[in-house]
Structure formats: C-alpha cells, structure tokens
Amino acid sequence: MMATTRPLQRATAHSIRALATQSSSSPSPARPRLEALRADLLTVDDFLPDSTPSSSSSLSQNRVVFTKSKAQRLPSYLKTQVPVSASYNKIKNDLRGLKLHTVCEEARCPNIGQCWGGDKGDATATIMLMGDTCTRGCRFCAIKTAKLPPPLDVHEPENTAEAISRWGVGYIVMTSVDRDDIADGGASHFSETIRKTKAKAPHILIEALTGDFQGDKDAISLVARSGLDVYAHNMETTENRTPFVRDPRAKFRQSLEVLRVAKEAKPGLITKTSIMLGVGETDEDVLETLKELRKVDVDVVTFGQYMRPTKKHMKVSSYVTPEQFDHWGREAERLGFLYWASGPLVRSSFKANELLKSVLGKRLIKGMKGRGQDVDVMGQDGERRTLEGVRA
Hints:
Layout: H1 2-25, H2 31-40, H3 86-97, E1 101-102, H4 103-106, H5 112-116, E2 124-129, E3 133-134, E4 144-145, H6 156-167, E5 171-176, H7 187-200, E6 205-209, H8 217-224, E7 230-232, H9 242-245, H10 252-265, E8 270-277, H11 283-295, E9 300-305, H12 322-335, E10 339-342, H13 352-366, E11 374-378, E12 384-388
Helix pairs in contact: 6-7, 7-8, 8-10, 11-12
C-alpha cells in the first residue's frame, strides 16, 4: 500500500508543477482585459499638482512610489528670537502656579517674547479662559479640540484676576476657547472674569477677544457691558474662504453680527477684528471684507500671515510680502479704521496696548475742535508722534 501511494504522490506533484509552468508561459484569455483595466486606474501622477517637476511622470503605473512634496521655505522675516527676559519668566511661572492657560502658548504665537517681555506697563499677555480644549476644529488652529471638554473651573475668574494684578502689565487680552457645550457659550464666566479683574486692578485695560457665542445676542451683550475697554472678535478670513478655513459652525455673516451687536450693546465701545492672509484669498475679497467691517462700524483691524502650526493643519497658500501688508494697512486707513496693524508676524493681540492709546488719542482729538491743543498718540505704523488739535 505504501509503495503504491508514494509514486502516486510524486506523479501528482509533477502534474501540478507542469500545469503551473504551462499557465505562466501561455497567456490567459483574461490577461488582456486585466491589463486594460490596470491602464485605466488612477496612478500617483493623477494626484500630483501641475507644478510638480516632470520627473514625476516616470512613476510606475504598476507600483506606488511615494514622494515627498517640498514645503515652501519660511521667509527670513517670519523667523523670531527665543524669548528670554525676567518679565517673560515671571508671567510663565505665575500661569503654571495658578493653572491658567494663554493663547500665546497654546496657539504657538511667534510674538510671545515681545509681548510678555515688555517693560512694566507695556507688557501684554493673552489669557485663555474656559480651559485649553475647544469644541470647534478650525483648520488653521493649533488648540486641541473635543466634543465635550472638561467642566469650567469655578476658581478661574478669581485666579485670573489675581495673576493679572501681580504682573504689572498695562493691557490684558482675555480670550477663550469656543464652548458650544455650555448654554450661554461661557459668556457669564467670561464677564465675571472681567469684572473681578477690574475690581483688583482698575488701572489695567482689558480687551475681550470672544467667540461668536453661536450668535446669541444676549451673551454678546453681557460681555460687552462687563466693564471691558475693547471688544474683539476675529473674522479670520474673507467670506469666500470661510467654509474652507473655519469650523462649519463659524459663519462670516454671524461674525459680522457679533461685532455689530457689541457696538450696539455699548455705544462708543471700541471694536476690533483680525484677518489672516495667505489662505487663498483674493485682493478683491480682502477689500470687500474691509468694507463690510466698516458698515458695522468696526474701529480696529489687524492683518497677519497664516503660519501652519503642524502638518495636520491646512497648508499655507502663499507667503504675503511685507509690501503687500503695508498696502492693506493703507487701505484700512483710507476706509476709515481708527487703527490698523499689518505685518507678517502681526497677530490679533500684537502690541494691543498701543492700539488703545492711538484710538483714544484720535477720539480725544475729535473732541478738541476749536481748542488748538496738541496731543501725543501712537500712529498706525507704531511710531509715536505729536498730532495737532484740529481747528474749526
């Protein structure tokens, strides 16, 4: 029995090898169809931009070859120094001790050294309220997100007021993550922090940089009437680019309404916004955005370069030149903004104390008609100059 089985096994194995050899040497009827199908499939070339060098066309259609696309080099004018100063270290240590957050750190702001390291009275900082986790996910923002962030810290308003009163800063910006999980978007928490800070340090000027509170007019008005000096809400980009840059819940027209309602809730309140450049906007779009902002009587606008925080975020569309930033600053002035700041490294809160001095100075001049007095103010380009009182 064993003798019969072994020759049979050898014969079967031989037959299988022969069949395999025959099938590989003679084309199968299905092979031409398979090759035609492969030819119709998309290859890596189909996903490469037109500007990619022609060498990419040599990629095999039968093998996927991964290539690294070159990122645009960072222009020299966008590089900053590592921050080192006594004021910087003091602010940083106090934040850690009181478990507070700043957008300066969370959003990786390039100006942190200049703002925190300024002389006493000139240093500024941007406190981020309501935690370090946002309920929205804008494509440009480095702040972490979650559908349900941790509960609010009930001690945060008091701790924030205590920290700010220690620092000796002349101007503070309070901002926050978006908290769509809270009924009023955190407006009552925001306004309580402003009131407690003013009570502890009445000399400090406060700017509130808020979210849109989902368009809730009562929430916007509550913050606007809380004792702040400047109400800021960032448009971020033009109307055409908003769907591609911001979270779907953030609407261009809704943001305009926030700025309008804030001014309506407290007439005379300084309102401010910021626009990123380099995210695919056109000149026509930017100009139209500025005109829309003037329709709702916004006083201050800043322009800055979008810089990609990580590879997970949207790419930089273009690096805007300093000359182009100057152009938009002049356009803002021509359209009637009381103050503008425009430059590659400018951020919403950059040298925020200077803007208030400038705006208040200009308003003072308007009230001095016929007096012929002079007043020293900060110009839009950051230079201090003496302006003559306007004579009737």
